[in-house]
Task: structure prediction
Amino acid sequence: MQRKYPHLAEPLAVGRALLKNRMVSAPLGATDITADGSPGPRTSGFYELRAKGGAAAVTASELTVHPATDGSQMLHLSLKNPGQLAAFTFLADAINRHGALASVELSHSGQYAGTYMVDKKSKGELHQWGPSDWTRPDGMPVKALAVEQLQDIVKAYAEAASLAKRAGFRMVMVHAGHTWLLNQFLSPFFNHRKDRYGGSLENRARLAVEVLQAVREAVGPGFPIECRISGSEFFEGGYDLDDGVRIAQIFQDYCDILHVSAGSYQYGFSITHPSQFRPHGCNVFLAEEIKRHLRIPVATVGGLSDPDQMEEIVASGKADIVVMGRGLLADPYIPRKVLAGHGDDVNKCLRCFVCMAERPATQTRRCAINPLIGREIEGTEIEPAPVKRKVLVVGGGIAGLVAACTAAKRGHQVTLAEKGGALGGILLAEQALPFKREMYELTQTYARRAARLGVEVLLDTEVDAAWAEGRDFDAAILALGSAALGSPLKLTDSSTTPTAAHVHDLEDYYLHGGELADEVIVLGAGLSGVECAIGLAEQGKTVHLVGADPELCPDANIRQRPILLDKLSELKIDAQVGLFGQSYDGQTLRASEAGDPAAWHEFKGGDVVLAVGRKARADAAKALLEIAPLTRMVGDCLRPANVTTAVYEAYHAALDL
Ligand SMILES: Cc1cc2nc3c(=O)[nH]c(=O)nc-3n(C[C@H](O)[C@H](O)[C@H](O)COP(=O)(O)O)c2cc1C
Result:
């Protein structure tokens, strides 16, 4: 058999275990965790889906080894807590039974632990534990760990590893990256110790080496140990790639896989979790360089989900293993699709950070484009429908596409009617922004899937009661989307072309383009306005971003928003808030202050792009409620929301048919 991605499919021996292919699920923190640190059933379900999808190993995380000095990471494994070993055993089973190696990440957060969970009694004297005494930039005092405490921590790693093995885990990962404790010791920025744990790189590496040695002793020879490091810390005063190579060389004597991540959670989040503004695989070069100096397998991670790119990474020897975090949330079945050669059927991660932002918001996980994430135990399979129905889906945007494909998978006979000339809806417009390409691609992936599933697609088809009459649909899913709100600007003509020709609806501009002036005003500073301003500035335009809300992109999630704000300042975009655009004459936009309508501000620009919001096509959808016995409105036509909501509602509406 000729495989399309032969290198990704090739097994790899690690210690005495075998990775069945080269695609591994990155450590992704769990959310369903009991008060004593045990994984709950939703956590098992969360990791199990990645194992079902064909990953060679699935790493549960993070397991804190030493609660006395740690606390921010939530899993913990100790025989002192009744039932805890059993809970971990169920978790390991859930991964192992699908042929993936169950692995667990052992960690200590050091000076970035949640102190409030550590020392509940002495809230008056809150501090955290790290390599050296100092005060964090946020004012939190950090105390240096004493050598006896370090020895206790090393012992705790070994105990956790031993218990993990007993629970059925077939691999362990020691986390020495991302500015957690072992990384804090490695880092010349944080580690100013004068004892044998500070100073030279060998000394700074000592704690991690002792941990790796103790873990080896606990799990025995041949049991695979993966060590995760940041190949470079990527901040001033931290260690660089040359040091990363030396650290890896030291560690390779004590582990079976060197896992090369990047940067620092605290000082470079968008490097550690490459944002949409970074190229896919932007951290691969770290693994590639480190691999040149090692004799053990090297793993790479960061912004990976494209099978062609991952195949090239392994084929060219840049890394032996590709690790996916968000990619396998967006599409847990990437490994199986790769093995089957269906690379074009992958739902690629949008890198929108919904996954990370959801935990602080609701204590759950979500993925914008995968409705199952965080809810796996409610069912991950699409079962055949007991009664096959004739289903109409109205609207070919992302909600309509998800509904149509899901209904077709259930065996229903599905017709998808789209009034425009192409499938994709509002997300078609995203192809204009290079950093949102995956959003557009998602629609095209679903369009191909719909064709494969036998969905009858009718383009240029406006559905109304008369059209539906006689077609005898049993059910209809109404996914009519939203429309642009009109312009709030009073236009006056002062230039040679009418001013209206210089005022563009965002979506229209993205879809139909046209050259804009060198100086442009984006009116509306929500997420879509901010993204538009970034896109225009990246084309070299001078951009004024004018928003009515008191802050920029309040609708961006808490992980994505700081990255967008950084980008605005990096591109020197003039961003103003609390202003209502009132008039435009082809050259100058006048805006009044929210709190003082008599206070006026003027912005120069030869064109205005409107990003002032959208309205639901609710009336049009309501007019179709009688076209079939069962009808359901989903997505933006209920109220303008986001991809996460559209996908979730559409998927479940199709399951309910
Ligand atoms: C939701 C989420 C949770 C994460 N939790 C952990 C964790 O517990 N431990 C860890 O080492 N890395 C964690 N990471 C980082 C990932 O393992 C990975 O290094 C990072 O997301 C970059 O890979 P990606 O671009 O494939 O997502 C997490 C990432 C995400 C998105």
Observations:
- The chain has 22 helices and 29 strands.
- The chain has a mean pLDDT of 95.
- The radius of gyration is 27 Å.
- The pocket of flavin mononucleotide is lined by residues 26-29, 61-62, 105, 175, 178, 228, 261, 273-274, 301-304, 324-327, 355-356 (CB under 6 Å).
